[in-house]
User: What shape does this take?
Amino acid sequence: MTELPDGVFRLLISLFTGGLAGAWLIHDLLFLARVRRRWRAGHRDPIAADQAFGYLAGIAVGIIGVVGTLRFNGVF
Assistant: This one.
């Protein structure tokens, strides 16, 4: 069995982690924009507020994942 070089391993881990975090970030940004449109239409219900909080938490997780991946690769 052949060993995986360190550079290839770092690349694969970075693509997986950064890709997942980036997709999560974009997904939650789009869904938060949809919830905000409902708020502006005058529908201030508690379910929309809970959804907005969840999407904001997802955005924070996505930012942490992307920044962590960039720091891992020495960009920051």
